[in-house]
Design brief:
Blueprint (H helix, E strand, L loop, with lengths): L1 E8 L17 E12 L16 E6 L11 H8 L19 E4 L2 E3 L2 E5 L2 E7 L7 E3 L15 E6 L3 E7 L8 E7 L3
Parallel strand pairs: 4-7, 6-11
Antiparallel strand pairs: 1-2, 2-3, 4-5, 7-9, 8-10, 10-11
């Protein structure tokens, strides 16, 4: 059994994630506890298209109860390239990024900034990803392979929605709240 304690980023009074001197997010409150466990014959009820051998996944709230809103399918999809391996893989070490793409999700899904600022997405997944702005804006990033980043600049104030640009995925959407320059 492997356990991952997931923490929300610490945010300042304006809701902006706080970073340390090296640009890493500071740990805030516990958001979830995620488990993956393997047992002989486990996972037989998981569709073959996403089954990871005998591994099964569960996510728990900070109170320790199963999170019925967790997208466990994303866990299976993210780990699927390693279904034949009996060890964990180490994700590429990344530098500061505004949004990390992991598996088939963005983190964080909502960020705030000011007009004229850049937002960087870093792909930690084995699957290629692309950022596509929505709502009448057809801007797209370059396709990012694992370990690559894409940066877009936002000059106008407003709420900007974005999605995965390659083969739309229902869990891959986010927003950027761009405030006017002071």
């Amino acid at each position: 059994m492997l356990t991952l304690a997931a923490y929300a980023a610490k945010v300042d009074a304006n809701g902006v994630p706080v970073r340390d001197a090296k640009g890493r997010f500071l740990r805030g409150s516990l958001a979830a506890v995620n488990l993956m466990q393997k047992g002989k014959g486990w996972g037989e009820d998981i569709p073959a298209t996403i089954r990871n051998g005998d591994w099964v996944y569960q996510s728990f709230t900070p109170a320790g109860v199963p999170n019925d809103k967790a997208n466990l399918t994303a866990c299976y999809q993210c780990h699927l390239p390693f279904a034949q391996d009996d060890y964990l893989t180490k994700l590429v070490k990344i530098g500061p990024a505004d949004v990390v793409v992991a598996g088939f999700s963005f983190g964080p899904t909502a960020i705030k900034g000011s007009a004229g600022q850049f937002v960087t997405w870093t792909n930690n997944a084995d699957t290629p990803h692309q950022i596509a702005l929505t709502g009448g804006n057809s801007q797209r990033s370059d396709v990012m392979l694992k370990g690559q980043s894409a940066t877009l600049k936002f000059d106008a104030a407003g709420n900007i929605a974005y999605i995965r640009g390659l083969h739309l995925h229902p869990t891959m959407k986010g927003t950027i709240e761009v405030a006017a320059k002071n």
